[in-house]
Every structure is written in C-alpha cells, then in structure tokens.
User: Fold this.
Amino acid sequence: MKIAIAGSGALGCGFGHLLKKNGQEVTLLDNWDDHIEAIRLNGLKVTVNGTEETQRMAIYKPHEVKEEMDVIFVFTKAMGLKSMMESIAHIIGDQTKVICLLNGLGHLRTLEAYVDKKNIIMGTTVWTAGIDAPGVTHLNGQGPVELQNSDPEETAAALKIVEILKNSGLNGVYSSNVNYTTWRKACVNGTMNALCALLDTTIEKVFASSTIDSMLTGIVSEFATLAEVQDNIKLDVEETITYLKNLADKVGAHYPSMHQDLANMRPTEIDFLNGAVAEASKRFGLQAPYCQKVTDLIHAKEEILGIESPIK
Amino acid sequence: MKIAIAGSGALGCGFGHLLKKNGQEVTLLDNWDDHIEAIRLNGLKVTVNGTEETQRMAIYKPHEVKEEMDVIFVFTKAMGLKSMMESIAHIIGDQTKVICLLNGLGHLRTLEAYVDKKNIIMGTTVWTAGIDAPGVTHLNGQGPVELQNSDPEETAAALKIVEILKNSGLNGVYSSNVNYTTWRKACVNGTMNALCALLDTTIEKVFASSTIDSMLTGIVSEFATLAEVQDNIKLDVEETITYLKNLADKVGAHYPSMHQDLANMRPTEIDFLNGAVAEASKRFGLQAPYCQKVTDLIHAKEEILGIESPIK
Assistant:
C-alpha cells in the first residue's frame, strides 16, 4: 500500500521505518530542510527499542508529492495539524484513509474539514520517540496502538490498518472505545502536564501539594462534563483522580512534555488540552473556568518566555 | 493617649515613631528578639521620607505589657493577625479602639472575635515601609491613611484617630467608604500580585500577555460578585479592569510583594486575597473557580519552593 507519513518527526520516522520494513511503500513528508537533506544523503538512522538501523526512505516536502495515497498517518504536533492537512489535501483521494494518533482533543473536528469522516481512523499510542539529530531518531514502545473507525460503518478499514501495524511490529489493536482512551489521556496531560509546566517542577512535587485534590478535581470535572455532553463518554471524576495519583506515583521524577516545551522555548499543546475543553465548553453553554485559567496562564508564560505563538 | 503598635515591623515602627513625636504615649509590641534588643540598646533608627532620626521607644513582647490601651494599631502580616489578637487580648478593654490598616480581606471577621465591633476602626493606607536591619526601618508616603468606624454609630471615635494621625504627619482622612477602597486594593493585589508571583515576572510582562483580559475578568468578576453579596459594595468589573491596566502602565517594571515573598522564601498573603474570596464565596453558595485555582497554584508553589505554611 502507498502510505504517507504526514509529519516525519520522531514518531513519524519510527512508524514509517517499521511500515517500510514490512513491505509497504512508504513516503515520508516533512518541511524541515536539514532533516530531509540528512535522510536523502545518509538514509534514516533509527533506533527501535535500542537496536539501530539505517534505512533508505523517500522523503519530500508535501507539495513535491503528486499522487494520491492509500493511507496517510498524520504525525504533526497538535498545532501543526491544520496547516499539514492544507498542504496534503491534493494527495487525499476518495478512498484515502487518514489515521490520527495525535495527543489532545479536537483533532477529528479539524480532520473533518479535509477528509470524509468515513475515511478517518482515530487512535492513540503509548509509544514514545525522539529526534537525536537531523535524520537520526529513536522509537521506544511495546504497548498497543489502538485504532477505531470514526464512521461506525467503516470497521473493516480500521481492521485492515490494525493488521498492517501488527505485522510491522507496532502492536496494532482494534478498540471499540478510542474516544474514551483519548479523553483519559487528555486528562493526564491536562493535569500533570499543565500543572508541572505552570509550577516549573516535577510530577511528584505537584502531586505532593496540599492543594492537589482541589486542582485535580477542578480540571478533571470540566473534562468529564464536556466528555459526556459532547461525546457521550463517561469519565468518573473520582476514579480518574485515583488513576492520576497512581500514575504520578510511578512517573513522579519526570518533567512532562509541556514543561520540556517551555524549557526548550517551544509553544505548548495547551490549546488542544485544557484550551480545547474551555473552547468546546463554551459551544455547549458550559463553564470551564479552571481549564480557562490554566490555558490563560500557560499562554502568558509562553509569551513571557518569548516563545512565538504556534500556527493554529 | 496610650497607644500600642501590635506588630512593630516596618510600617508599625514608622507609625509608632510619628505618633510618639506628636506626644502620644506609644508602646511597640513585637516578638522578634533581635529587633527588640536593637531598639532597646540603640533606639529606633527610622528614616521617614528620606530623613533619618533616632528615637527612644518602649518595645515589649505582647505578654510583657499588662495595662489596657486606649488605642491599638494592628500592623501584622495578614496571616499573623489572629495569633497577635490572641496575645494582646489582655490589653484590650471595653473602650480600647483597635485600628486595622492591613491589606487583604476578611480581617474584620477575625477582629470581631476579640474586639467589640463598636471599637473596631478599619482603614487603608498607601504608605510603604521596609526593615533595613533589626531596629532600623524606613517609611515612605504622603497619600491618605483612610479610616472608618465599623459600627455606624461610632463616627466620633474614628474622627478622633483621624485627627491624631493628621497631627502626626500621617495624613489621616475620614472615609465614608473604606470597605470599597479595601475591595479595590484587594482587586489590585489579587490580580497583579498573584499573577506576577505565579508567572515569576514583572507587572508589565503579565499585562502584555494576550490572555490578560481573560485572566483579569475571571478574577475581578469573582471579587465583584462577592463584594456585592457580602458587603453590598459595587465594583464595576470593566471600570476596575481599566483601572488595573492604567496602574500597570505606571508600575510595570515592579515585582509586587507576593513575588518578593516567594523569592525570599516567605509565605504569601494569598489566603487573604483570592483565597479569602474563594472561601467566603462558598459560604454564600457562590462559585469562585478562578480565585480557587490561583490560590491552589500559589500554595503549591510555596510548598514546591519549601516555604513553610503560615500560622493562620
């Protein structure tokens, strides 16, 4: 199958590499010149769970590719999804499946502007990846890559992609409730991630605060209310908080990604977490003041640090 | 008149000095050993608007003083008021007037547990002061010290204190709306002060944020709602925000006191600003999620920095 990776950063390169090893016809798409040049010159150097390999990969800027794809995985940062969709619109055909594994909320809404809902497959992944240098990436993971068709009629298409991922060593799993998993992950990122970024500290320090219950309850309640009203997803607030605390016990020493974003002068994904909840809540006539406050503060912090606004 | 200064830090020493120069019989009360010792040994060295003077002052720990006072000015930090009131209860008589110029909200409620309301005079001041070393302080100001009797029947008592302050060079002014001024000052501190502390930056940087309107509106609306419900004080939200922005233009380069508290490892007064609004709102069945979130975050920040909880 002709597969494009739209956004060939760390995770995109890792997925592209494993799909190509499985015999798929993979094209990497990206806009970073140094990265493209390095991969064209030296091949992609990719370390998967500790094993380094070099692989020749086709890599182009989106406008350089002309033919319609069978499958496109989008692997941008959340704030890059819309502009990526605009730049790949010409390679999306009537039958092209678009698979979205991005963290955060609101992506289906963005995709629907460019892709027929019957062709959209939403998913989640717990695999992690990083870029070590232009053309040099690593990918780590064993957990599931969960997929589900957005259109209830289109299960077969999702099952086909699950099969390809499975055969590629990417642990594809069909899920009947990807949306729940997405909301739950968003709760993790909208609490730990946002609070660590704001308070400039580790997860364990944030969760040791005397005000942690109040902070978690405020944010999670707003996520849960919207999840139910918008998507008919039931997130139990108490159970979610217990889950968050257990998770915090395991990963306490960690600085989550939004903290790293600020430390590295990159815009955060807050608009696709707490910000998305605040915005969508307004559309449903709901209040989400905790999420709004956190979003306002994170954006203020980005600007104070001199980080430029993301393209939305 | 026999006047005690309960809490003889910078502002207390400055007021005590000027009242004594005016012929009042002033006793300073404090618990800081080095400060007491320095003033007993060398007198109080105090610089008022740039002019340095040394003055012999009586200074004691609260329990060392036995006689009832005519007037007591309380000049503690907000979180020290309650324990100070406990330690001076024995010098408060049926006729002792207690004057409170503290920043923040909720102090009348605290005072009423120790003093008959007819003897409580509330006020505000824009004078500033600092401690340079034990026994060495400075006081700066020209603006009004506004006073008002808590009990509407007791105007004469407040006018008498106003007169004494005027004669002492402290620009006493009778106000028919001290409560309004207190709420307005609390709005300043609950926005600029809290946000600068949280975002670790100056007023001008906070006010240059793209999210400043949302942040100010959220907080000020909650202050305004409670002010009306609890105290029948009308704070116009739009007008207050315009006032805050104009003020920010003037004092933009400044790090407000709550930021300095964190930088100097001292607990902040957040429980007497946003925290007081969140707590009191609950008593009236109101929601104050913005103030709650800010309070939670500031307390988390204090704890992350290793600052010990204040005595409440």
